[in-house]
Design a protein that fits this description.
The complex is a heterodimer of chains A (276) and B (323). With 276 residues, chain A is mainly α. Chain A is built from 12 helices and no strands. Chain B is built from 13 helices and no strands. The chains are: A mainly alpha (276), B mainly alpha (323).
Chain lengths: 276, 323
């Protein structure tokens, strides 16, 4: 079954491109010290705002730091925030969705009303509000993005659980006297996992985008730690004289988010029998 | 239908209350007192004066009492006064709301006018060049950082070509312009923000329309319609699209928080005098009354957007009403 899915996925050219780029980015994040050509934190002030050259592939910033090396290290921030934030939201969303769908009744009402309330707030406003009052650092950003983006997933999992729990094998499992915990996590969870995978892959792209927006507004990862978003912030200030400071990090964000979205959409097509 | 509307209205009451609780709690769990901003700047302030200020805002009372006080004032649409300029918050919001509504309303219209045709053609002509090109374009819009796209467009059309104004809502000489001049002036200022907002919001609706169409096209009644010998365009537009569009109505409700959430970033970039920028500025300067008001109003707008979407849905699809 897994092999069949993988074959189908690899037939999708766009998804294949997405996978290749994601693998390249993860490798870049792991081997940042080997790939970068200069120190990402300390620059040579005499070499400030230089255009791309042989020595500095993507030019230098206002402190004379090498943009290429800063972007290579910035990969670590983007990828880890994307994956960890989504990890948090997947755990919370899937758990609450399963419980809500399986038990129904009051538990369901309470959880779903809470989801309704949360969905009325624009996620970005909530994040902005919380981050502004906490210390803006990479951990807070991860946690806040994770804790504000699980609601859609909880709804999705609840819906799937509602239909799975009426199927014969679940009724049989109940008849055999299995524990609720076992029924939920061993028998229902694997049957609702496909849409969760799709949503979480798409979620990584969204989280990376949110982080870059926060860093751009000065509320995300703080300088001198390099992140694509905060390189862009300084890019904005020097846009008339240093186009490379704005162009490259923006492209990096675009390509990264696009890859996760293409992979997510490819997976959706693979899992969705309607479209095939 | 009336009983459905009534039931649906009842459902909004707990959500409405929940919205106020969340806004209130987020503000109160945050470290520091709202009055700090008023007192920190003044080094000569005495402890007594500080306490007096705390008492004026009721901050010495238990949280639930404070919440009750806030709700009472809220019911009278009294959001208090801004810490920044001491003006009533409701006035500040009333000034900003039209600009945000105009921008988001236009964006929604463009998103619907472009995304639905894209979705329909991509489903009918699945895997053709058109499908592939639009898929990639829509995904580019979905993946591009809004603020980056906005800056690039401002540089290119605003500074490089000089065709469009790069920020704000109207020009400095706006009051001297004729009616037609005023209209073109505002239109010119709208082009870039609406484009950015619509382009980045296309993906959801077009993908949704495409998959809804693909599902409908496999239904028996479509086969029947074809077997009757109806033309392909009648089958697509009259039989398939009408049915596929029913659930799309609910998407309007879901689009609103996304659009407004986006407003916080690009209203700031385009210096657009809307609620998003007001909210962002309030957050940055810890202007508590304004933050709470923006949060509550935005959430209530979304709630009513959803309400209208649900009622429309029940109106065009009678099956919903009897669930």
């Amino acid at each position: 079954m897994l092999k069949l899915y993988l074959e189908k996925l690899l037939k999708n050219k766009l998804a294949k491109i997405g996978i290749l780029i994601i693998v390249a980015l993860i490798l870049t994040a792991i081997f940042s010290p080997l790939i970068s050509t200069h120190n990402p934190i300390e620059g040579n002030i005499l070499e400030r705002l230089q255009p791309p050259s042989k020595n500095h592939f993507l030019g230098t910033d206002e402190m004379g730091r090498d943009v290429f090396s800063r972007m290579v290290y910035g990969t670590r921030i983007s990828i880890s925030i994307g994956i960890i934030a989504v990890g948090i939201s997947v755990i919370v969303g899937t758990f609450l969705g399963l419980i809500s769908g399986y038990f129904g009744g009051k538990i369901d009402t309470v959880i779903m009303r809470f989801v309704d309330i949360m969905l009325c707030f624009p996620t970005f406003f909530l994040i902005l509000m919380v981050i502004a009052f906490l210390e803006p650092n990479i951990y807070n950003v991860m946690i806040v993005i994770g804790l504000t983006s699980w609601t859609g997933l909880a709804r999705l999992v609840r819906g799937e659980t509602l239909s799975v729990k009426e199927r014969d094998f679940i009724i049989a499992a109940k008849g055999l006297g299995l524990k609720k915990r076992r029924i939920i996590f061993v028998h229902i969870l694997p049957n609702v996992i496909a849409p969760v995978i799709v949503a979480s892959i798409l979620g990584v792209g969204a989280a990376i985008l949110t982080e870059s927006g926060l860093s751009f507004l000065g509320l995300g990862v703080q300088p001198p730690t390099p992140s694509w978003g905060n390189i862009l912030t300084s890019g904005k200030d020097y846009i008339h004289i240093a186009w490379w400071l704005s162009l490259f990090p923006g492209l990096a964000i675009l390509v990264t988010v696009l890859s996760w979205n293409l992979l997510g959409e490819g997976l959706r097509d693979v899992f969705d029998p309607r479209i095939n | 239908m009336i009983s459905y509307i009534f039931r649906r209205l009842l459902l909004t009451i707990p959500v409405l209350l929940g919205i106020t609780v969340i806004t209130f709690l987020v503000m109160h769990l945050s470290p520091g007192k709202p009055t700090d901003i008023l007192t920190d700047m003044n080094q000569k302030i005495t402890v007594e004066a500080k306490q007096r200020l705390v008492a004026i805002y009721g901050l010495d009372k238990p949280v639930y009492v404070q919440y009750g006080m806030w709700i009472k004032r809220l019911a009278k649409l009294d959001f208090g006064k801004s810490f920044k300029d001491d003006r009533p918050v409701i006035k500040k919001i009333a000034e900003r709301l039209p600009a945000t509504l105009l921008l988001n309303f236009l964006s929604i219209i463009f998103i619907f006018a472009i995304a639905i045709p894209i979705g329909v053609i991509s489903s009918v002509k699945k895997d053709t060049v058109f499908d592939k090109i639009t898929t990639v374009t829509v995904f580019l819009g979905f993946s591009v950082p809004t603020f980056w796209l906005a800056i690039l467009l401002m540089i290119f059309f605003g500074l490089h070509l000089g065709w469009l104004p790069i920020s704000g809502f109207r020009s400095i000489n706006f009051d001297e312009l004729t009616f037609f001049g005023k209209f073109t002036d505002i239109t010119k200022h709208l082009i870039l923000p609406v484009f950015v907002s619509a382009f980045t919001g296309l993906a959801g609706l077009s993908r949704y329309t495409k998959s809804a169409m693909l599902e409908v096209l496999h239904q028996d009644y479509i086969r029947t319609a074809r077997a009757k010998g109806l033309t392909e365009s009648t089958v697509i537009f009259k039989h398939a699209l009408r049915n596929a569009l029913i659930p799309v109505v609910t998407i309007i409700g879901l689009t609103i928080p996304d659009l407004i959430g986006g407003s916080f970033i690009f209203e700031t970039i385009f210096a657009w005098p809307g609620m998003g920028r007001l909210g962002y500025e309030a957050i940055m300067s810890r202007d508590y009354p304004v933050i709470m008001a923006v949060g509550t109003i935005v959430a209530i707008l979304t709630l009513f957007g959803n309400l209208i979407a649900d009622i429309t849905y029940a109106y065009i699809d009678p099956r919903i009403r009897y669930r």
